[in-house]
Amino acid sequence: MVIIVMGVAGSGKTTIGSLLALELGWDFYDGDDFHSASNRAKMAQRIPLTDEDRSTWLASLRDLISQNLRENRSIVLACSALKKSYRDVLNFNEEVRFVHLQGSYEQIEARLRERTGHFMSAEMLASQFEILEEAPDALGIDISNTPQEIVAIIRKGFNL
Questions:
Q1: φ and ψ at 139, to 5 degrees?
Q2: Could you give the percent of the chain with pLDDT greater than 90?
Q3: Cα gap 92→108, rounded to integer Å
Q4: Phi and psi of 10, rounded to 5°?
Q5: N or C, fewer C-beta in 10 Å, the chain?
Q6: Is 47:142 a contact under the CB 8 Å cutoff?
Q7: Minimal CA–CA distance to 46: which of 112, 100, 106, 114?
């Protein structure tokens, strides 16, 4: 199984994904690590990525998922997956499941303002909310829950 923890920047994807993977004994991957240097530089300059910018990134994440499924390894992947078209690239197998970490703009903006040393700034959050499309097939979870509660909800939701 592949669990993709999705949401806008600052929603807690890395925190929740790594905690879930640790509890399950699965490998964890952060989608941010697969961005090209040019994508990182663009985001650091507060320039939102285009669909074209994201295409090679999504292809590399799809390859990662495919390789792990071929090798029968379960993984957790933190990935924004904001648009349905992005999720469609990643959701090519019935073993791929999505968790959508949901919160208000104000909650997430406050989190981003506290974060240092990350290429995604609070100023870029509006662009993420603008392109976010509903994920009706995802397990939606409110980020007001504690990380431990969120992991418990995911495990219960997917019978893990």
A1: -80, 105
A2: 72
A3: 30
A4: 90, 0
A5: C
A6: no
A7: 112
Structure token digits, residue 38? 């040019």
Q: Is 100 within 8 Å of 140 (Cβ atoms)?
A: yes
Written as six digits, the tokens of 122 are 């609070």
Q: Which amino acid is at 88?
A: D
Question: Which residues does residue 101 pair with via DSSP β-bridges, in sequence order?
Answer: 141
CB atoms under 10 Å from CB of 63, counted, come to: 11
pTM: 0.90
Q: What is the DSSP letter of 12?
A: S
Q: Which two tokens stand for residue 70?
A: 């071929």
Whole-angstrom Cα distance, residue 76 to residue 27?
6
| Rounded (5°) CA angle 77-15-159 | 60
* Residues 129, 115, 148: CA angle, nearest 5 degrees: 80
Nearest-CA neighbor of 58 among 26, 85, 20, 29? 85
3-state secondary structure of 49: coil
Phi/psi at 146 (5° precision): -70, 160
Closest C-alpha to 32, from 118, 95, 124, 99: 118
Packed helices 51-70 and 37-44: angle between N→C axes, nearest 10 degrees: 130
Exposed (0-12), middle (13-18) or buried (19+): which is 10, by Cβ within 10 Å?
Answer: buried
